Amino acid sequence: MDIPIKNLFGNFILFLPMGIYLPFFIKKTNKVMVFSISMIVLLFIIEVMQLVTRKGSFDVDDFILNMPGALIGFGIWRTKFVQKLLK
């Protein structure tokens, strides 16, 4: 039971910072649709790299869990509190 919980929360939390850092460093990703497409491409590249290098596996679960984590991070990025901190 311990391994599925670690997998679930690990994949979910792993890309939460990406939702903050990507729009901070790449200003074009400040819109939800552009950010989502960028994350889908990035996650697909990561999963393919794991498959090609045999350092992991192409796992759809990782893809599904990482995307909401990144979107929550993006939501945090868009809050007025974070935007005030940056100004």
TrEMBL record:
The chain crosses the membrane at residues 7-26, 32-52. Residues 9-78 form the VanZ-like domain. The keyword Transmembrane helix applies. The keyword Membrane applies. Keywords: Membrane, Transmembrane, Transmembrane helix. InterPro entries: Teicoplanin_resist-assoc, VanZ-like. It comes from the Bacteria. Signal peptide: none annotated. This is Glycopeptide antibiotics resistance protein. It comes from Sporosarcina psychrophila (Bacillus psychrophilus).
